[in-house]
Design brief:
single chain; 271 residues; alpha/beta; 7-stranded mixed β-sheet; two-stranded antiparallel sheet; 33% helix; globular; binds uracil
Length: 271
């Protein structure tokens, strides 16, 4: 697959640690064509959540959660109703420990949708998905393929970017960054389903084990699911590693780049 990248995108790839063969296109000045080796072996690497952040001072024990049913009719809600339903959700125990819900961010008319796992400490405090270190890497990965969570954002170089919508499987932070529990995923699943239905993306990038398990209803490891096109509600899904994992497993970044290239090809056709 051949891809035209400008200087800024190449710098972002360098920051991602992705080394690709860069033949200079005949007569090219700023852009070069890169050949992405998509034939290399797939990883079987296990995916784990980032190590918990240094402990915060112990908070007072939360009052017993007053749980309540998820609001009815999620499957037909519009954006404002859905956002309000999530903000007020008390369907699982995470409502007792969250600072706030983290609904999603980006363009609601985007061709691309990224699905992550769950808010962490930073996201819980800011109410936005992927705002910590993993989020910075995610933004760089997206920028490398011309996408931004700021819809139609222009870069310093005046390069127009396409919007992307970013959401998580869970809308509330699991305390101590523990793994999501099956009942929490089950309670939150209709919200994500409705977000996908409202955005109607051309492609979903499922990042990490819990996004993959939730969307594809499988327990197969990511290494065996990469490199193929899956489906969720009729939308093509590409499986890739979670940015938090890539921060620790630098050698896997090249595979994530391959996954992005595959997603580009599926979403927009061969370059
Ligand atoms: N990890 C995720 O999966 N989602 C976030 O929003 C932040 C970190």
């Amino acid at each position: 697959m051949t891809l035209m990248l400008d200087e800024r995108q190449r710098a972002m790839l360098a920051e991602m640690g992705v080394k690709v063969w860069l033949p200079r296109a005949p007569g090219a000045t700023k852009s070069v064509a890169i050949e992405v080796d998509r034939a290399s072996a797939e990883a079987q690497a296990p995916v784990a959540r980032a190590a918990p952040a240094p402990a915060r001072p112990p908070a007072a024990a939360p009052a017993a959660a007053a749980l309540g049913p998820r609001p009815e009719g999620v499957e037909s809600m519009d954006w404002p109703a859905l956002e309000a339903a999530v903000a007020g959700c008390r369907a699982c125990g995470l409502c007792a420990t969250r600072t706030q819900t983290v609904f999603g961010a980006g363009s609601r008319a985007a061709d691309w949708m990224v699905v992550g796992e769950a808010p962490g400490d930073n996201e819980d405090r800011q109410g936005q998905p992927f705002v910590g270190q993993a989020g910075k890497l995610l933004d760089n990965m997206l920028a490398a393929i011309g996408l931004s969570r700021q819809a139609s954002a222009g870069s310093a170089q005046g390069v127009e970017k396409q919007g992307v919508y970013i959401a998580n499987v869970l809308k509330c932070r699991p305390p101590g960054n523990r793994n999501p529990q099956p009942d929490e995923v089950a309670q939150c699943e209709p919200y994500l389903r409705r977000q996908v239905a409202l955005v109607q993306p051309r492609i979903i990038l499922a990042m990490g084990r819990f996004a993959v398990q939730s969307l594809l209803q499988t327990t197969e490891p990511i290494g065996r699911l990469r490199g193929r096109v899956h489906q969720y509600q009729g939308v093509p899904v590409i499986v890739t590693y979670h940015p938090a994992y890539l921060l620790r497993a630098l050698s896997e970044k090249a595979k994530a780049w391959q996954d992005l290239c595959l997603a580009m090809k599926v979403a927009h056709g061969p370059a």
